[in-house]
Please model this.
Amino acid sequence: QVQLVESGGGLVQAGGSLRLSCAASGSIFSIDDMGWYRQAPGKQRELVAKIAASTTTYAGSVKGRFTISRDNAKNTGYLQMNSLKPEDTAVYYCNAEIRSDKYSYAGRYWGQGTQVTVSS
Model:
């Protein structure tokens, strides 16, 4: 069983910063990729950033402001969010493709989400 637990959300003023963490636990052989998604009220869930090996992908709306990273030794991913805007307000979800052992297929897992609120 694999679990993803996010932390680091909260309330911040526009222009401020937050750092989200996503800790993976359980039966983990490898994490093939890890990403952050967000969902604002009344909107669809959207990809914010993704990291696979050393390749990173960002949504256009966050490029230059957000940085995704991971610590493989700790099975933890991070999303550093700078220059936050009110439109960044959403529930942020961690998503990862994780292999439980060398021979199994990878499964995709979601965290429970963490609220980020940016006030103007």
